Amino acid sequence: MVTMSAGRLAELTGGALVQGSADTTFAGIAIDSREVFAGCAFVAFPGERVDATEFVPAAVRDGARVAVVTRFDEVLSKALEGTGAAIVVVADASDAVRLLAAHTRSQLRCDVVGITGSTGKTTTKDFLASVLAIRLQVAATEGNRNNELGVPLTVLEAGADTDVLVIEMGMRGRGQIEALCEIARPTIGLVTNIGQTHIELLGSQGAIVEAKAELVACVPATGAVFLNGDDELSRSLASRSRAPVTYYGLSEDVSVRAEVLDVDEGGRPLVRLSEGGESVEARLPLPGRHNAYTAAAAAAVALHLGLGLGEVSQGLEQAKTTGMRMEVFAVASGVTLINDAYNANPTSMRAAINALTDVETAGRRVAVLGDMAELGSLSELAHFRLGEQVAVSGIDRLVTVGERARRIAEGARAAGMPPEAVLACPTTAEATKALDDMLAPDDTVLVKASRSMNLERVVEGIVRPHA
Could you say which DSSP state residue 170 is in? Predict the structure, then answer.
């Protein structure tokens, strides 16, 4: 992780050291006062509701040696007297973090893998990090830190001993991935797929392609690019690459191929991974046949970096994935819950529904599906068609949450799902109450929606039902 003196920090960020010694050193960055650790620098972000500068004294008491603030007054100065903490005032806290990250990246000599795509970014990152860690020292995006602040923080976690830095890159508009690449400077680029996510913001699928192409275009000629060979739009990005391109997928005309051999009672696929006439099998740690693509992507990059297929299999089978991504667990009531509530789009919704139908259950299969955001003019039809899929999938009960998701219910009824098996709820509270009465032991429940729907509240209601 980043280690330097307060004086050097001030120099790199254009800040001013207003208290303490320039020689005070720190190791690591914290941006949440609750996550401060001994010897770190605490960066206080001003907010509309809370100014983190108020937490600087507490952060110092908890071990921060340096604080980066955007304002400094007599009250704060007195509160820090005698602590030995160094205080650096900067014009913009976010810019300061980005400048520190850009400097840190310039000092790294490791490979940097940038991952983007419409779906599967986080799981791909998790799978790849697990595989690479079999042999290499890996730093990777934690949780969902894939934006203009999260990417610099991930870079700052890397150190001189890092062999590979794995960075997830999200996107909500043109130029954002390019800006992230200017900081991270990826030597390897991986695109999972290109779907309809963010079409409301970008206007067309062509614009989404252009946005994702920013990663491919930023990889140097000496690097490598990995594309989903089964996704036509992803394949089209090859022309933007200066680096050699490797295709992965399920079809026979790719370099690294995954085949789903079977799924177990929990819906977890057994995949065969093949490359250059050799193959290996791996049981993936979470349900969903679509995760074969994720496995193939991780395998392709790992093989490029010198790992063997046996190490790929080992890393995949022991991978720990980020929460709310096909997270399966049994609750006290006897219900099996598939928590995939972090985000949703038409592609990932269809994959999750298929995963639910693959899970063996002694009870009913229940899908709790909420709004898919940012689909623009495609929203009505996309929700309706998703309901049609639910109706023919063998799912026993459907509960929708939100106004857009009401079209899922309408599509399911139109495709023949019995009206009594479909319930449209406008809010998470109503859905939670309905599920309290509906669910029985041995039922298996999938919960999924776009992030803005906060369906983790429904998950919490299932885990802790009302008396």
Answer: -
Nearest to 299 by CA among 195, 157, 190: 190
Q: Give the separation between CA 38 and CA 123, rounded to whole angstroms.
A: 31
pLDDT at residue number 377: 86
What is d(CA 195, CA 172) in angstroms, rounded to the nearest whole number? 13
Give residue 232's pLDDT. Answer: 93
Mean pLDDT, all residues of the chain: 94
Residue position matching structure tokens 């976690």: 157
User: Which 3 state secondary structure label does DSSP give 100?
Assistant: helix
Distance CA(62)–CA(83), nearest Å, equals 11
| Angle subtended by helix axes 150-157 and 176-184, to nearest 10 | 20
Q: How far is Cα 243 from Cα 168, in angstroms, rounded to an integer?
A: 20
Does domain 3-94 fall into CATH 3.40.1170.60?
Answer: no
> Where is 367: in which H helix or E strand?
strand 365-370
Q: Which of 396, 319, 388, 385 minimizes the C-alpha distance to 359?
A: 396
The CATH topology of domain 327-463 is Protein-Tyrosine Phosphatase; Chain A (3.90.190)
Task: Calculate the alpha carbon distances from 287 to 291, 328, 418, 442 in Å.
Answer: 8, 8, 27, 18
Whether pLDDT at 198 is above 60: no
Contacts of residue 217, defined as CB under 8 A and 6 or more positions apart, other chains included, come to: 178, 240, 241, 242
Domain coordinates in residue numbering, the chain: 3-94, 108-317, 327-463
| Maximum separation of any 2 CA atoms in the chain, in Å | 73
CATH 3.90.230.10 fits 108-317, yes or no: no
Q: What pLDDT score was predicted for residue 50?
A: 83
CB 346 within 8 A of CB 426: no
Based on DSSP, count helices (H) and strands (E) in the chain, helices before strands: 17, 22
Per the CB < 8 A criterion, the answer to whether 401 and 445 are in contact is no
Strand-strand pairing, 365-370 and 336-340: unpaired
> pLDDT band at residue 199, thresholds of 50, 70 and 90?
low
